[in-house]
């Protein structure tokens, strides 16, 4: 994604300052100081999952800002991916393989990106005449430890990988999917024979874990390009907008963690 930001910014003869914000409250203070001291002309922000909407809107009120793959109320633009489509593609792949009981590991409940991916999962199930159950959906987080904990929750509370339980799981982030995969194997589940796993987004780790993760690749470079362009155009006088990157579309990459269910 950052390569896309750099590419677009260089086209506008603009320098990019890359920084990482800590967890609140320190991170809130860092961002507020950056804005109030006038160190930057504008901000592109990929929000942390522990920054809520009100916090971000208040901090960014004094500077032109665009959030990347997250929407924040207030005087802030946004550029997001077609996350519903990504969640739908992952779910449709599992349905096509023959799975009818499919669980979902989401990001945090306050993060709108995770909720859009969850909507894609639910809408695709409904379109196929299938349903989810409350115990099959876990709001967790983006990192491996969150995915690991969520898989444990599904295994204990929803009979994941057992008779009458889900035979597959969609995970809202690839890092969380790595944690879920590791825990499934540690619990003695065979992947994909007992449990199929699909992660949304793709990184180098998708190929290096064993078995290699089936994922949905998102156009992150294009996301960065569009976000930088929207901010640059706003600095040039154009109104801030809320933009959805629809091209290129999310792409399914089938690897080794998905297969037809071995039981109904």
UniProtKB/TrEMBL annotation:
Q: Does the keyword Transcription regulation apply?
A: yes
Record key words, sorted: DNA-binding, Transcription, Transcription regulation
Task: Please verify whether the record's keywords include Ribosomal protein.
Answer: no
Query: Locate the Transcriptional regulator LacI/GalR-like sensor domain: which residues?
Result: 91-258
Q: Mention one GO molecular function.
A: DNA-binding transcription factor activity
Gene3D superfamilies from the entry?
3.40.50.2300
**Alphabetical list of InterPro entries matching this protein:** LacI/GalR-like_sensor, Peripla_BP_I
> Which PANTHER family does the entry mention?
LACI-RELATED TRANSCRIPTIONAL REPRESSOR, LACTOSE OPERON REPRESSOR
Q: What is this protein called?
A: Putative HTH-type transcriptional repressor ExuR
UniProt organism field = Mycolicibacterium smegmatis (Mycobacterium smegmatis)
């Amino acid at each position: 994604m950052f390569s896309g930001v750099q590419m677009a910014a260089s086209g506008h003869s603009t320098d990019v300052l890359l920084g990482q914000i800590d967890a609140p409250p320190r991170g809130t203070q860092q961002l507020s100081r950056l804005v109030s001291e006038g160190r930057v002309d504008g901000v592109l922000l990929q929000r942390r999952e522990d920054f809520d909407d009100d916090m971000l809107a208040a901090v960014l009120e004094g500077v032109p800002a665009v959030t990347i793959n997250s929407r924040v109320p207030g005087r802030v633009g946004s550029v997001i991916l077609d996350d519903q489509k990504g969640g739908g593609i992952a779910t449709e792949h599992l349905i096509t393989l023959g799975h009818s009981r499919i669980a979902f590991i989401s990001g945090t409940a306050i993060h709108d990106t995770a909720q859009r991916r969850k909507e894609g999962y639910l809408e695709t199930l409904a379109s196929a005449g299938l349903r989810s159950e409350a115990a099959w959906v876990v709001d967790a987080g983006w990192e491996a430890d969150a995915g690991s904990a969520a898989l444990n929750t599904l295994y204990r509370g929803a009979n994941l990988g057992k008779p009458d339980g889900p035979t597959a799981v969609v995970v809202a982030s690839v890092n969380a999917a790595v944690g879920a995969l590791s825990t499934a194997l540690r619990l003695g589940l065979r992947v994909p024979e007992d449990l199929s796993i699909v992660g949304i987004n793709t990184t180098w780790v998708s190929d290096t874990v064993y078995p290699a993760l089936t994922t949905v690749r998102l156009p992150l470079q294009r996301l960065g390009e569009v976000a930088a362009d929207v901010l640059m155009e706003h600095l040039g006088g154009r109104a801030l907008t809320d933009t959805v990157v629809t091209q290129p579309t999310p792409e399914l990459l089938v690897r080794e963690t998905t297969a037809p269910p071995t039981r109904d």
